[in-house]
Amino acid sequence: MGSPGGSVITESSASGETVDGLRGYRLAIATQARRFKRYPAQAMASGWAGSAEIRIEIDSEGRPRATTVARSSGHESLDRAALTMIEAGALRARLPESLRGKAFAVVLPVVFNLDDE
After folding, report:
1. How far apart are CA 25 and CA 93, in angstroms?
2. Contact 25, 31 (CB under 8 A)
3. What class is the 8-116 domain?
4. pLDDT tens column, 33-87
5. How far is CA 91 from CA 31, 62, 71, 86, in A?
6. What pTM, to 2 d.p., does this model score?
7. Residue 112: strand pairing partners
8. Residue of 78, 84, 92, 99 with fewest CB within 10 Å of its CB?
């Protein structure tokens, strides 16, 4: 997906301090997102577990632009919970200086495991 200033940067296409910035930002989102993890009641009652990968695109102004399921957990309720969690984390994560003014995307895994609840 493109942006007005060029293409969206990802960890696989980045280099140097941009890679470090992407990794740091991914960690910052994950840290913030943990506070918003909610295991859906229906999923718990049904014994559902799984891992989803969530892709979040950030525009050149530093705002989340799109959040999508890059890889499904196999359960829609878990995928929705993962999307909500990552979106909340992204809104609160501090953007590294090396990423300011750049459009980029990061992918974060979210694991739902009944043993952790």
Report:
1. 7
2. no
3. alpha beta
4. 999 999 999 999 999 999 999 999 999 898 999 999 999 999 999 999 999 999 9
5. 12, 10, 22, 9
6. 0.85
7. 50
8. 92
Mean pLDDT of the chain: 89
Backbone φ, ψ for residue 106 (5° rounding): -130, 155
3-state secondary structure of 12: coil
Cα dist from 115 to 41, 79, 86, 112, whole Å: 15, 18, 21, 9
Q: What span, in angstroms and rounded, lies between the C-alpha atoms of 74 and 42?
A: 14
CA distances from 59 to 39, 43, 73, 112 (A): 29, 33, 26, 29
Token pair for 6: 């060029």
d(CA 102, CA 60): 4
Rounded-to-integer distance, Cα 67 and Cα 29, Å: 13
| Main-chain dihedrals φ then ψ at residue 11, nearest 5 degrees | -60, -35
Q: How big is the CA angle at 80 (ends 29 and 62), to the nearest 5 degrees? A: 35
State in Å, rounded, how far the first CA of the chain is from the last one. 37
